[in-house]
Amino acid sequence: MFGREPHGRREFLEASAGVLICTLAGQQVFSGEEADLAKLTEGVEVPPKVAAAKGAQPDKRIAGEPGAGNTVEYWIQAEPTAWSIVPTGRDEMMNRKIRTRYKFTAWTYRPYSRDFGSPLAAGSIPGPLLEVEEGQTLVVNFRNRTSAPVTMHPHGIHYAEEMDGAYKGAFTDPGGFVQPGQEFQYRWFAQEGTAGAWTYHDHGPMDPIPLYKGLFGPLIIRPSGATPPDQDFFLFFHDLQPVATGLAKAYSSVNGRAYAGNTPTLRASVGDEVAFHVYGMDNNFHTFHLHGHRWEDPGTGQIIDNKTFGPGDSYNFTFTEDNPGRWFYHCHVFSHLHMGMNGWYIVT
Ligand SMILES: [Cu+2]
């Protein structure tokens, strides 16, 4: 394991990892090459409560939950998806061709119709927007078609311990260890006081590698009866590292894509009420910077145009659009910016 040729410094910076041994998924792996999750899984013991449950579904309701009829239900399957990080093959910010490889097999949360009848969309990074109002129960029927135990763990919403979707070693509940081919029904309650933009992501025993491969998505809880803004943008800032992609180089990406023209091109019109929901979904701190604009930071009341956020954060702000043009949004950490963490915001 230790006899490898070291990468050159340039490669090291580009990969921001190189061949380092690090602990991921509770085991030591080379951060500079793709982790073999099926193989790593062989070394993981099935937790006792998971083995005892034999696939039976717990029915865990939160006190105060309304009855049936006030439930929003989704069918979501975790599955491998062929994914291109740079579909145009170009970086529009620097007007250049990308010459390194940028395709890999992602793991995605893919939405299906009732009872997993048929897919509603292609698998994507991030997964589908889960939408619910305060006072409603969110039920997610989850099926795992990847090669490792994975889960869905939500932020912000209210849930019983059994619905946490987190691996906890010997204390793991069945929802925290959904094995390949198995299903689990998560039940989460959007009680009063949970309104906001949140995330859901894998929190299984291989954490964080399945998340690094794309298993995360947005969850929004709106106040009851609230009208959505004219534009609602959900942007995940995250690295796609060799340990997750098998590619030689790391990409700094927004929603699984790198470089303007590949990352989401956002569009709005003057007068629109515009809401941004920006997430940190890797091991880094990022900033959100938007050209030609400024807004009141909800936390401090200051007028700003650049905001730092960290792993697991969701940063939310709104403004009324007043400035037409072709603008950039990007992370202001320069290495991230130039490894692809930038995109267009076009206002007409
Ligand atoms: Cu960044």
General description of the model:
This protein is mostly beta strands. The protein has one domain: Cupredoxins -  blue copper proteins (Immunoglobulin-like). The protein contains 6 helices and 23 strands. The chain has helices at residues 9-15, 37-42, 48-53, 209-212, 242-245, 334-338, and strands spanning 21-24, 27-30, 71-84, 90-91, 96-97, 103-112, 130-133, 137-144, 153-154, 183-189, 196-201, 216-222, 231-240, 251-254, 266-268, 273-280, 286-290, 295-296, 303-304, 306-309, 314-320, 325-330, 342-347. A 5-stranded mixed beta sheet has the order 15-23-22-17-20. A 4-stranded mixed beta sheet has the order 6-3-8-10, with no helix packed on it. The chain has a 4-stranded mixed beta sheet with strand order 7-12-11-9, with no helix packed on it. Strand 4 and strand 5 (96-97) form a beta hairpin. It is globular. The model is unreliable at 1-17 (pLDDT under 50). It binds copper (II) ion. Copper (II) ion is lined by residues 237, 284, 286, 331, 333, 336, 341.
